[in-house]
């Protein structure tokens, strides 16, 4: 079976495994106070051009989202999210389990707009009985989105300007941020992202690391006592070196971006071949997730050989599927998939 169902089917890149082995018997402080974690934090701050940023390493995306959002919101507040947002559909109610509501915005493509945010804000504050309703307290978006789409710099500037006017902290889920940053359609730098939100994270678990996300808090008002929130909610890892070492390696010699670029290049090669075979796409994704609309017969044939998700039923004969490449995907596997699609009903 060849896997195109996610970008975390493999373990970790060899550079990380070698460094973990090399440092295995070193005696180091725990809880991220080791020299490698400190070096990784400085590298991230430098790339973000934000030396006052607060950087923390956590294990996974759901954990990070839950801790960040619950640390920011007051007890009576909720978080604004697109209806397809990961916190709304794929985290088993983790946010709601902390006592906070996800305030869902219907979208056609999974992207929030500044108008969406302003509408939620104004509807609440124009409500004469608003104290009976959950108050919007922050905004969540993912970059790329669940459909692999990007926010342009202009779009993100507009969103952040609205968030600031409404006093709503903006949080960016960057589980696949690297894949977005290396996309040929992207016009954002890591520094731009850092300066156009209040807090975001750089995903490692889906881009070369065994586990780990690097959380970057740029808003100084949200930095104080954050480690207390991490500890209380199980996010302060005893052997924090395991995370710090990985990010220290990932941000050496552009490794993180090179790994991400490998996946995006293969995804776009796959996209072009599928388009040349006459098929359309649910989303025009420029990243490592592709959503072709294929005949159900072809999909069923492919599922005997490949692992991928059937994303959405289009009609009785066609469905959109999700094909995901990773930092470790083999080009020969992509070419084999292309060949099987091109040979359908020949």
Give structural notes.
The protein has helices at residues 14-22, 35-48, 61-72, 86-89, 94-97, 114-125, 153-165, 177-181, 190-195, 226-232, 241-250, 255-276, 296-302, 331-342, and strands spanning 2-3, 54-58, 77-82, 102-105, 135-142, 170-173, 199-203, 213-217, 289-290, 293-295, 306-307, 309-313, 318-324. The longest helix is centred in the last third of the chain and has 22 residues, at 255-276. Helix 7 (153-165) links the parallel strand 5 and strand 6. The protein is built from 14 helices and 13 strands. Helix 1 packs across helix 11, helix 6 (114-125) packs parallel to helix 7 (153-165) and helix 12 packs parallel to helix 14 (331-342). The protein is α/β, with parallel strands linked by helices. The radius of gyration is 21 Å and the shape is globular.
Name the structural class.
alpha/beta
The ordered string of helix (H) and strand (E) elements is EHHEHEHHEHEHEHHEEHHHEEHEEEH
Task: Give average pLDDT, whole number.
Answer: 97
- Strand-residue proportion: 15-25%
Specify the biggest β-sheet: 7 strands, mixed
Rg for CA atoms: 21 Å
Strand order of the largest sheet: 2-8-7-6-5-3-4
Give the N-terminus to C-terminus distance in angstroms. Answer: 23 Å
Percentage of residues in helical conformation: 25-40%
User: What is the number of helical segments per DSSP (H or I, 4+ residues)?
Assistant: 14
Uncertain segments of ≥5 residues (pLDDT<50)?
Answer: none
Q: Total strand count, please? A: 13
* Spatial shape: globular
């Amino acid at each position: 079976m060849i896997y195109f169902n996610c970008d975390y089917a493999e373990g970790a890149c060899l550079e990380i495994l070698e460094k973990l082995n090399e440092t295995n018997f070193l005696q180091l402080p725990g809880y991220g106070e080791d020299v490698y974690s400190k070096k990784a934090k400085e590298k991230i701050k430098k790339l973000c051009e934000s030396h006052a940023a607060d950087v923390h390493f956590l294990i996974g995306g759901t954990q990070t989202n839950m801790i960040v959002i619950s640390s920011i919101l007051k007890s009576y507040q909720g978080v604004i999210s697109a209806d397809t947002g990961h916190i709304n559909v794929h985290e088993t109610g983790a946010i709601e389990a902390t006592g906070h509501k996800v305030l869902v915005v219907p979208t056609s493509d999974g992207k929030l707009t500044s108008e969406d945010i302003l509408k939620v804000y104004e509807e609440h504050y124009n409500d004469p009985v608003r104290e009976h309703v959950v108050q919007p307290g922050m905004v969540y978006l993912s970059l790329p989105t669940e459909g692999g789409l990007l926010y342009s710099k202009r779009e993100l500037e507009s969103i952040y300007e609205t968030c600031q006017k409404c006093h709503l902290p903006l949080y960016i889920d960057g589980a696949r941020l690297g894949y977005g940053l290396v996309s040929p359609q992207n016009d954002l730098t890591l520094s731009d992202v850092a300066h156009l939100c209040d807090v975001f994270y750089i995903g490692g678990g889906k881009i070369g690391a065994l586990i780990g996300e690097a959380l970057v808090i740029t808003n100084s008002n949200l930095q104080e006592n954050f480690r207390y929130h991490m500890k209380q909610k199980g996010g302060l890892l005893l052997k924090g070196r395991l995370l710090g070492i990985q990010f220290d390696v990932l941000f050496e010699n552009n490794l993180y971006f090179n790994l991400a670029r490998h996946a995006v290049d293969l995804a776009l090669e796959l996209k072009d071949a599928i388009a040349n075979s006459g098929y359309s796409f649910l989303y025009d994704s420029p990243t490592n997730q592709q959503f072709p609309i294929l005949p159900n017969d072809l999909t069923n044939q492919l599922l005997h050989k490949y692992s991928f998700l059937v994303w959405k039923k289009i009609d009785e004969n066609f469905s959109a599927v999700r094909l995901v490449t990773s930092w470790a995907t083999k080009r020969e596997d992509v070419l084999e998939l292309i060949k099987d699609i091109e040979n359908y009903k020949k």
